[in-house]
Design goal:
Layout: H1 7-19, H2 21-38, H3 46-57
Helix pairs in contact: 1-2
C-alpha cells in the first residue's frame, strides 16, 4: 500500500496477489480507499477550532 516493504517481500506480496483473486480484490479495495482518504481535508474548519478553544477556556476560570 505504501511501498514500505523490502524488495524481496514486495515480490512475495505481488506473487500472492497474482495467485489469489480474493486477496487481489481486497488489495484493490484498500488502494481505492487510500486514494479517497488522501483526498480528504486534513485540517478542521476554523470555526471548529474556535469552538474547541472557546470551550477549553471555560476550564481556566
Amino acid at each position: 500500500m505504501y511501498n514500505e516493504l523490502p524488495a524481496d517481500e514486495q515480490h512475495e506480496v505481488e506473487d500472492a496477489l497474482l495467485h489469489d483473486p480474493e486477496l487481489a480484490v481486497a488489495c484493490a479495495d484498500l488502494l481505492l480507499a487510500q486514494q479517497a482518504l488522501n483526498g480528504l481535508a486534513r485540517e478542521p474548519k476554523a470555526s471548529t477550532t474556535a469552538n474547541i478553544l472557546q470551550y477549553s477556556r471555560t476550564f481556566l476560570r
